[in-house]
Amino acid sequence: MSAPPTPAAAGDSPKQTLPCPIPDAVDGECEAHLLHATDSVAATPEAASSAPGLGGGHGHMTSSWWWRTRSLNAPSPFQQFGPCGRIMKNSAMVMQIQDPASQRLTWYKPPLTVLVIKKVSDASVLAPFVQLVDWLLQEKNMVVWVESAVLEDAHLNEDAKFKAIRDKLVTFKDGRDDLTDRIDFIVCLGGDGTLLYASQLFQQSVPPVMAFHLGSLGFLTPFRFDNFEEQLTSVLEGHAALTLRSRLRCVMHRKGDKRQEAKMEANADARPAANSILVLNEVVIDRGPSPYLSNIDLFLDGKYITSVQGDGLIVSTPTGSTAYAAAAGASMIHPSVPAIMVTPICPHSLSFRPIVVPAGVELKVSVSPESRNTSWVSFDGRNRQELFHGDSLRVTTSIYPVPCICAQDQISDWFASLADGLHWNVRKRQKCLDELSDLTASGSEDTLDEMENMKLYDI
Q: Which residues are catalytic?
């Protein structure tokens, strides 16, 4: 562990970065979680020991002086996306946090490999898929990767144009092949599920994703396929705005697991723990098939917050705030807001409202000792597993976001999705007074008299 920083000398920047001991961390992301001390919190051991919430009562900085594992600020996202893509640095960058509206994609070497993900079991996607793959191969001379199951599609193999290019495709199998650092760019054809699948395939750095709306809802797929050549060419030339969609890192701790094994996993060279999963939308803890209420204890940075008694709990990203969380009554949050949402599912309490916590905290969820039943956990609707008494689930914000390419910009794309996908705030327009001029005509006094008479009759 590195030594504590020395007090700032005269003329030094007032902002310091303190190493944050992580005794209970469980993955290689720990080096990115630092506490930034500003003028309001002096960057010295003495000030830290006396500052509220910063381990007061300890006179020195050791590996145990500070129980906090993360700062309240969101972790700085990993800014390289696959082998070729990264965030373009510009004057809007402040320290390590960049103005989201200024985030634009740049390629520091030309992208050569592209992964094309298409919606399965949908005949309407076959023709666009063949057209896109043929164009990428013939016009852009790119190496095109597809899932091996795509080549087994009987309808696709009947297409004469696809037969001519079939042998030029590189295939992979989900769960067997590791795509890390092998893909420069991702194109999704379908609905929101294709983007969630892309997130699942890359459990660390994710290449830039361009999603075309060929599915049902299309909340996360802003591009239309009509002029895909022009749009793709623009993106491949580096002309694109980005939305960095944060992900949650979820780690299951089973009762009886050795702490030493967790520490060994934490010190791995930026490799995720074997039992960790990154989710783009949400992790859901529910009562499963049991008829009893869930009884789930919720902790925030090691402190007990509350117990959830109801059907369950949703812990979601801002991206997931428009998914299951929205159906459960949560607010919708722009994906650039650094936050984690905690939403109860049908709580047996009239006062349990959804809450939003800072992105830098660590949440721990466990089955209450008094619970009559176990709970079940699912990650973006997949990998469903049982949470037993004594087990716990830890959830933090990952440093690996999903870099989604914008059709226009962050704001326009999001509000367009709200309007088109969810019909947000759609109602008939109220008529202006000019359209109601008939009520102000000469007969309006008689109308008012009639209304007064009706009130008397009603009494």
A: 192
